[in-house]
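It is worth pausing here to work through a concrete case rather than discussing structure prediction in the abstract. The textbook approach is simple: state the sequence, then state the predicted structure, then interpret. We follow exactly that order.
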Amino acid sequence: MARTTKLSLDEWDTLHNNGPWDLKFLYKTKLEASSLMPSSLDRYNDAAQEIQQLLKETNNQNEGFRAYGSAWSLSHIAHQKDRMHFNAHMNTYFSFKNQDLHHLSNYNADDIFMFECGNVIKEISEKLAGHGKSLKSSGASNGQTIAGCISTGVHGSGIKVGSVQDYVVGLNLIIGPNPGDIVYLERHSKPVLNDVFVQKIRSRVIRNDGLFNAALVGLGSFGFIHGVVIESQNLFLLKRYVKSIKKELAIELAESLDFSNFKEIPEEVENGKGRAPYHYKVFINQYQKNDADYIVELMYKKDFKLNYPDPFPVIKKSIYRDLIQLAVS
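Step two, the predicted structure:
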C-alpha cells in the first residue's frame, strides 16, 4: 500500500524562500515498493486511493487541501494554510500501444505517455529518451514536476512550440473522496485514450474541450492532478550559432519570424532559402558603443544520432563567452 507521512508544521516556504506562510499539516505520499507491488498500474491506482483517503480526512475536518511539486513558483500560489501534499514521490509512468487509443484518435501511440504528477522534467526526459522520444518544451530548468509545470504555464523558447501544457492531451483528476470522484478528462475534438484503458485507472471519462482547456492551467482548482497524458516527439539535436548582424535585420527577424531571406549561415540554407530556426534570441547590450549591430543566437533542430560530439566541453568554453566576445569586439 502507498504510505503517507503526515507532518505537523507551523509554516511552509517555497524553494526560493518567498514565504514563509502558516501551515498545519504536510503530507508526503510514497508509492508501494515495486518488489511488493510489481504492476505500475496497481501502484498508480493504489496511490489514487491513498489520495482519496487524505481528501476524506481533510473534508471531515472542514479544511483546505492543496498539492504541490517542487515549490519553484516565485509566489504563494501553491500555498494552502491547512493541509498541503508534496507530490514528488509519486512518479510512475505508462507508455501505450495502438489498442489503448480511442478509435477516433489521430495520435501515434508511440508518442503518447502518461506521467504521474510527481515526475520532474529531468525524470521525464530520461524516461522518454529510453523510448527514443523527447518533450516538446521544458522551460529553462528541469526540476519542476509535470503537474506543477502545466498548472503554472511553464514555457520554453522554441519558436513554434508553446508552453508545457500545450502538448498535454489528457488529465487524470481526483476531485473528491467518493466513488466516481476520479475523472479522466480529454478533448472531445481530439480523443486520445479509449474507455478500456480509462477503466483500468478506475476513472470515469469526460470528453469536453471547454472543461479540458479550463482544467489545463487550473492552478490545482479542478482537483488533484494525478496523471498527465502528453504527446512527445522524436529525440532531436540542436545546433547553435551566435552571430553579429545588423540591428534592423535582427529586429525584423524577431518581428516576422520569417527566415527565408536570412542566409548568414550557409549550412542552414536549403533550396535557396534560409531555414527557420527552432530558437531565436536577440541580445541587446546597452553598454555597447556601436549599436548598429545586435548579437543573435540561433538554434536549428537536427535529427538525432548516437555519435554526436559531447556538447559539454564546448558549452563550458563557449556558451555566453562567445556572446561576450562578440559584444565587446
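Step three, interpretation. The CA atoms of residues 175 and 223 lie 5 Å apart. The chain has two domains: 3-234, 236-328.
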